[in-house]
């Protein structure tokens, strides 16, 4: 699969060209892992949605809403309530998307385009554009700067997310039904698969992972703001496609999405180390993503 | 043969879609181990009839008995649970999934203790099934999209036979196939008979109908024109029944 080659190629390229700028230092590599954690978690949910033949464009807005929810709730309530609220909001928005798509039969592209705007607006109005600090140190430890057996918590969350996601995707009946639904909904239906329910569930999963990504942002930055998740839409979609997930369903990979996400993280990191202007970074990143996606899609057609 | 109990009885089946009468006063009995061919022009109501038997449509009126027991299928799952399987015209296969996942689609095998998929067993059982029907594919782990039309048709038939305990309905199973592939699929269908399943097959090829069936049932514009024992009729009679031209 192309993502493995691309991953190694980009890694080697930066390792050589940016050696003097410290690309290969343990600190920089760890940083890449930490920075990509939220995107990787979002990517897992998106793999489920795309595999079932749906798309979720609203996950970036869900990230902001859930991060702000956690931050606000933690001001007055204990950890567990904040976490439940943050994740619950994500799942609830996913369920809203899901009901509109699965039962009102509206196309997920349009539904989630609308809810993306809707919840971006709600995120802005929740705290009047203000950033909300997160003071709860247990929370910022678990979801941000903490460590367990000298492994950063963000790395642990990434590993748990990828492990559980991969297992559910590849080794359960639910995962098989997701793939069948995206591959051929009629075949799924006549063999007794509850296609509508699958569509609802995958959008709820995407909402859940976006909510989780919101917690990780709030934990790492020790604050929440409406801008969180805003710029992740392109990166995450690119990561997932480069990782071998089909845009029109029936095929995908969680491990591929992880590698795709790390690849995007390396790219970001490398472009920053190259000292490019932000505008040039955006242009180069856009072009490379275009190339990567084109190559991945060609590869998967064969 | 005639004393044997009926597996499926259709009595005075009517089906209308709004103003369009698709099936009118249709009655037919099927016995285990018997192949009945359903023939008629396009729009005669053949597919509609299969969908009624498989629970996709509810008849406007009429009775269906399976094994002497009156039934009304609410949907395709209840018919499947009673041992009725359909090979659809479009095959209903998930193209990007492996053969074994298609074979067990919606009924995947799991293993204790966590209820994860038992892919190995599904692969082995699928391999056995396709071997039994002599469907030649590279492996049960092959992806459907890598297979030829005949191989796919073989997979769809193997799936239906695996899950059908009573009745297999086939809607134009060889319409899209070449000569050699058609012959192979016909052999597969003949093998279902040995398993003592009742088979109802829609076909446009009279050669095929005469080769495979025990009886032929002719439909014209929703009306049942007649049922003939295959050995007591000939193509001329069937053609004139189909077209209404004597
Ligand atoms: N879902 C439906 N809604 C309305 N009319 C239908 C529907 N399905 C079939 N028909 C009509 O019923 C008649 C029989 O169709 P069909 O059973 O598909 O015929 P066949 O399979 O013999 O070609 C046709 O006139 C067709 O237009
Ligand atoms: Mg038809």
TrEMBL record, chain B:
Gene3D superfamilies: P-loop containing nucleotide triphosphate hydrolases
InterPro entries registered for this protein in UniProt: AAA+_ATPase (IPR003593), ABC_carbohydrate_import_ATPase (IPR050107), ABC_transporter-like_ATP-bd (IPR003439), P-loop_NTPase (IPR027417)
Protein keywords: ATP-binding, Nucleotide-binding
A Gene Ontology molecular function term of the record: ATP binding
CDD domains attached to this UniProt entry: ABC_Carb_Monos_I
Domain ABC transporter: 8-246
Record bears the keyword Cell division: no
Thylakoid in keyword set: no
Name under which the protein is recorded: ABC transporter ATP-binding protein
């Amino acid at each position: 699969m192309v993502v493995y080659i691309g991953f190694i190629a980009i890694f080697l390229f930066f390792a050589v060209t940016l050696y003097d700028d410290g690309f290969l230092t343990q600190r920089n590599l760890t940083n890449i892992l930490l920075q990509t954690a939220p995107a990787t978690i979002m990517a897992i949910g998106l793999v489920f949605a795309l595999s079932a033949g749906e798309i979720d464009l609203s996950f970036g807005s869900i990230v902001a809403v859930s991060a702000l929810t956690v931050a606000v709730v933690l001001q007055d309530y204990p950890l567990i309530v904040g976490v439940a609220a943050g994740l619950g909001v994500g799942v609830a928005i996913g369920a809203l998307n899901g009901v509109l798509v699965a039962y009102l039969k509206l196309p997920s592209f349009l539904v989630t385009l609308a809810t993306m705007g809707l919840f971006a607006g709600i995120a802005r109005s929740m705290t009047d554009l203000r950033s909300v600090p997160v003071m709860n140190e247990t929370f910022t430890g678990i979801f941000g700067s903490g460590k367990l057996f000298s492994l950063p918590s963000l790395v642990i969350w990434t590993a748990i997310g990828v492990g559980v996601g991969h297992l559910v995707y590849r080794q359960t009946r639910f995962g098989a039904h997701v793939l069948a639904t995206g591959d051929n909904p009629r075949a799924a239906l006549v063999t007794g698969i509850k296609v509508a329910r699958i569509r609802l569930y995958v959008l709820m999963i995407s909402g859940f992972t976006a909510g989780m990504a919101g917690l990780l942002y709030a934990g790492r930055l020790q604050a929440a703001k409406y801008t969180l998740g805003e710029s992740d839409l392109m990166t995450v979609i690119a990561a997932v496609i480069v990782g071998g997930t089909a845009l029109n369903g029936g095929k995908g990979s969680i491990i591929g999405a992880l590698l795709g996400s790390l690849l995007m993280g390396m790219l970001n990191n490398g472009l920053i180390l190259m000292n490019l202007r932000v505008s040039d970074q955006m242009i180069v990143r856009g072009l490379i993503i275009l190339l990567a996606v084109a190559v991945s899609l060609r590869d998967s057609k064969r | 043969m005639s004393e044997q109990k009926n597996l499926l009885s259709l009595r005075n089946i009517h089906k209308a879609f709004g103003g369009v009468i698709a099936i009118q006063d249709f009655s037919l009995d099927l016995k285990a181990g018997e192949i009945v061919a359903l023939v008629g022009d396009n729009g005669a109501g053949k597919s509609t009839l299969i969908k009624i038997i498989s629970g996709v449509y509810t008849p406007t009126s009429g009775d269906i008995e399976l094994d002497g027991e009156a039934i009304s299928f609410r949907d395709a799952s209840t018919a499947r649970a009673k041992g009725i399987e359909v090979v659809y015209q479009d095959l209903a296969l998930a193209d990007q999934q492996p053969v074994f996942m298609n074979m067990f689609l919606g009924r995947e095998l799991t293993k204790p203790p966590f209820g994860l998929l038992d892919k190995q067993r599904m692969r082995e059982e699928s391999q056995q099934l396709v071997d039994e029907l002599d469907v030649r594919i590279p492996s049960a782990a092959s992806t459907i999209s890598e297979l030829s039309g005949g191989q796919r048709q073989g997979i769809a038939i193997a799936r239906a036979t695996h899950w059908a305990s009573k009745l297999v309905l086939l809607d134009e199973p060889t319409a899209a196939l070449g000569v050699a592939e058609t012959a192979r699929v016909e052999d597969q269908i003949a093998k279902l008979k040995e398993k003592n399943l009742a088979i109802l097959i829609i076909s446009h090829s009279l050669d095929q109908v005469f080769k495979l069936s025990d009886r032929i049932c002719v439909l014209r514009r929703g009306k049942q024109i007649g049922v003939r024992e295959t050995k007591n009729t000939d193509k001329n009679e069937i053609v004139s029944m189909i077209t209404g031209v004597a």
